[in-house]
Amino acid sequence: MKTSIPTQREEKNIQVMFNKIAPTYDLLNRLISFGLDQAWRKKAIALLAVNNESKILDIAAGSGDITLALAKHGPKLIVATDFALRMFNVFRQKLDTGEFSQLITFTACNALDLPFRDQSFDGTIVAFGIRNFADRFLALQEMHRVLKSGGISVILELTEPTNPAIRQLYKFHARLLLPLLGKLISKHKSAYRYLPDSIKNFPNKNDFRTMMNQAGFIQTSTVDLAFGTATIFVGRKQLASE
Fold first, then answer.
1. Which of the four, 44, 60, 82, 228, has the lowest number of CB atoms within 10 Å?
2. Degrees (nearest 5) of the Cα angle 212, 214, 218?
């Protein structure tokens, strides 16, 4: 089982790194995923079953792509959280030109210590963030805690493909192209050297589902995307009557 996670010191470095790359984060996401990241977000959101009474928590919301996509589904409230405040600056620039400013609220916090009451949200979502958390299990426990009974948590994350041929192509892309793109566009080469390492150190799908179960989730499942280079993990909080 791959259990390597960032230390608290490494987490601080990650926070600094994301603050530095915030202005070019969206462009790099498009290039790195060959433009597929937006479609992946839509698939993840569809699994939340949002309605006009839903209160949704977007953890590690970053520059706001998934929050803004969620807003189009008409929930009652979305709370966007992150610990990289410059990411929020990028997010707010998008929000200023949009129609969802009354629907979205911002909270600066760490995913390991969410400042919300138990059973506050109908759904939680985190996209491309949980591999950076200093304690993934604690983050899962926090997601579970703030969910209402019957609520759903959705996690979209980059993962290593298991198919040998796809895996070789992925390694070429991750080890050579990602650092080059990072250096050319963000001027922060180390950020995109960190990325493939963080994916490599992320647990395999079965191990991560086991972790979700141990955090209290039931009916956990996965959806493979782009030959397994990204995965959606889904878990539900048990109803009190079950």
1. 228
2. 60
Listed residue (82, 79, 164) closest to 117, CA to CA: 79
Cα–Cα distance, 153 to 42 (Å, whole number) = 15
Tokens of 55: 């209160």
Query: Can you give the residue ranges of every domain in the chain?
Result: 8-161+201-236
Strand intervals (E) in the chain: 55-59, 77-82, 104-108, 121-127, 147-158, 218-225, 230-236
Asked whether the CA dihedral 36, 155, 60, 97 is positive or negative, the reply is positive
Domain 8-161+201-236, classified CATH 3.40.50.150, yes or no: yes
User: Are 152 and 221 within 8 A, CB to CB?
Assistant: no
Per-residue pLDDT of 130-185, as tens digits, reads 998 989 999 999 999 999 999 999 999 999 898 888 888 887 777 777 777 766 76
